[in-house]
Amino acid sequence: DDLLIASQTELNSYLENLGDDYEARGLEPPIAIPTGVLIQSARFPDSTSVVLTGYVWQRVPRIAGAELVDGFTLPQLIDEPMMVEEILREQRPDETYVLWSVVVALKQAFDPLEYPFDRHDLKMRLSPNELARNVVLTPDLGAYTVMAPGLLPGLEEVVAIKDWRILTSSFRYA
Q1: Is the pLDDT of residue 115 over 70?
Q2: Residue 128: is the preceding peptide bond cis (ω within 30°)?
């Protein structure tokens, strides 16, 4: 089951439980890297993939004695098209803000046999580039004005997908 994160309280609870789990296994508690996504467009080149265009950003915390690797990987990535281009890097007092422009083709688990009565859950899975430390990517909740799934957080207001009606968007841990 996926865990929906729609509030700071839910995120804090998740991180606390994760920290307890790491501690019980004798591991360092995970370091949270707030990460945001803004999807501007989506198209479906075939029945098993989606091409998404938009932005991904991270607010990488500065931690004494630790230099964290920013960035992300997309486990569902298909070869083409793909463009992940860093367009902004800003050093702030407590963090490094990094913004990427993305155009990515992602594998999806659609069932074409249900057409035309199908519902699709588009998923964009992000994993951290940081491998040397325990890192967890968290939704950058402060960057969104709304988090209720029906209000479509993470989607640009004018995003439209031909012949589709978008019902919800959300941030989840699988």
Answers
A1: no
A2: no
